[in-house]
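Subject: complex prediction, re-run

Hi both,

The earlier run crashed halfway through, so I resubmitted it with identical inputs.
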Amino acid sequence: MTIEQKQPTPEQMGQERAEQTPKVPETAEELRAQVEAQKKQNQQEFRDILKRAQDWSAQQKGPEVNPVGTQVELDTLGQEAQTTVQEADTQLDQLTAEGQDTAQISPDQKGISEQDVREKAKQEIVEQKVQEMLAKHPDSTQESIDATRRQFEKIFNIKIDDNDIHRRYIEEHQKFASQRRDEKSKLQQQLEATEDPEKRKDLEGTIAKKDEDIKYLDSVVVERQRMIDGSLDGKTTDRPVSTAPTMEQGKSYVGTKKNPDGSVDMTRALESKDNVAEKSGEEIKFESGQVVSLKRPESDVLESGWTITEIQDADYGKYVTATSPDGKTDVSMPASELSKFNQITPEQPTASKAEATVQKGAEKIKPGFELTTIKLNESLSEWSDQELQGKLIPHLQNMLSQLEKGRDTAYSQLQVQTRIDDVKNDLNNVLNYIAARSGEVSTSRSKQPEQKPVSKTTEQPLVSASENSSEAKPADKPSGKSPEQAQAKVEQRSEEVSTPSTSGGDNAEAKPVEAKTVEEAKPEAKPADEKKQLDKKGVDQLIRSVTDEIHDGVDGARKEELTNLLTEVLNQSNDKHQLFNGADQLMLMKKYDSAIAFYKKAEENNTVGGLANARSVYELSSSIATRLAECGEYDGARESLEKAQKLGATEHNPNYQSAVKFVSRRSSTLGKLFRRR
Amino acid sequence: MNQKEEIKIKSKKANEIVATCKNKLGTIRKKQNIVIEKFHQEVDTKKMENIKKHIEDL
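This time it finished cleanly. Structure:
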């Protein structure tokens, strides 16, 4: 996170104000833009207030007057300002949210897609994180806030709990249902007041349609609730019985689900059978056990990872039944419909698919060569330098590029990531081998590849993710570099190989985790160098460095190194803010157990006394509760919320309120407990 | 009420919310000035007392 110590100049501020000259909005979009601009202005004023208090705090060194009383007063004012801004933000959000509902729900809309719900949830979480960051660094520039927001968006892309999504999905669909009921009631009033038979007929038709919509929306709510209940009880939901084919002849369905009571929900006829046949073209042959992508009727997004469990021949074509990735839902559809989606968007690469492609490619470039089990000592010696540099390396780079492209959308990201690590490892080994063979390194080092068996956990990955993505080229366009350039790269790597390595993590310079040129690999202040400075300032600085580094992207060995470093430092700290911030970083690195431990330690040290008044304590407790819930540590979250309550936190405190809201989404038991109170 | 009118009303409401927030923040800022000013005055008084004491001691 880069926090720049910049304040806008008076000219800039004047310009900003001039740009924000009120213009009466005419559309919902303009209203939202206006509100966003106003929220930013409020935030800026709040930050100015905090900055002033911080500046004062930093200047107080003289012992003439005890500054504690003043500090407490300024802290209280700062909190008052924060509450004021948050309250205004909430009111403004409500205003635009209401506007959004009426603007977005068109009479024909049947709900919103799960993708949209996820996106909304992500935005909400990201915004919460950004606000917390702003409270900690009130002098952040708009640029750094935007950069932070983007980083958080990246991080939270895949980190939302399924039950959270189900609850939001329910809320959204309940809103739709409620609107349809209102519309129906108005239509019924009109019907009662109308005598014209033509009009009455129209109105009756529309009311029937509303009824159908309400029935569908209610069934979606019931279905989702069942999914939540099943997962909370630790049981799977009653798996609906597959009853394919169940559709009426002449109609085509994009997905049906039979409930145990026989009703069909989540079902929508998209188009007539004839249209489907026309559009789908040639039917793809499906096999039981095959993994396919599906599209829900209310969504435009393909969901991967569905497994075909049954194929049946119906009167008018083949029917395929597929089971959802979580095994809870069955859908049936004509094979032609399934073909349509799977023709347009092939299944994203999975580890086994990628492996097969790699093997195929490897066979092509050198028959009999098994890439997935490279045995450098035996196999690579059979390759000429030209073959290695012109064929094998570009091929591996191409593989990496393909895998990385597919990683975010693949069903099993972990599996693909493992494969990426393996290919990176292979690439490193090949590069090391070339470097050693080219004789550019000392005799003892040139034996390194032979001495080092191929392992899936290379300690010194010389190829970073960023390097792979920027340099990976398709195999048929080999690397785009001349052989001389490629050789130069190899030589450069050979110099890196010759860098003395140490087993400890203290010498960051001697352990080039990320590939760098010799010039780039100049000494820089790594967090590891600062480990010894365990005074408050040193630890704060270290946490900031780690934060920056995580946001720049770390993986593999570096992640472990940072985790160990942070753990070591936080073990020795009793500063609640340091512990909280450090735990945040551990959470970002997905070290949830360590993060939980330090959030709890922060909570232990979060007591009233000194500069900390009850309000500042319960503010932090509320934030800790949110984090613990995010890590799945509900007991800890409950304890923190209880502590906040005892100290006087009420629903009027935005931070506490948002913590209760967040925790409730994660755990319905806690939700009931605190909302009732 | 059509959508345009509704948005106009909401915009007006948003302006009111922001104006209230600004007023509150303005008050907080004034209080902050007073607190800091008070502190500086106390420091000055203390300094003066020290100087006086020092002169008296001399």
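The longest helix of chain B spans residues 3-57.

- K.
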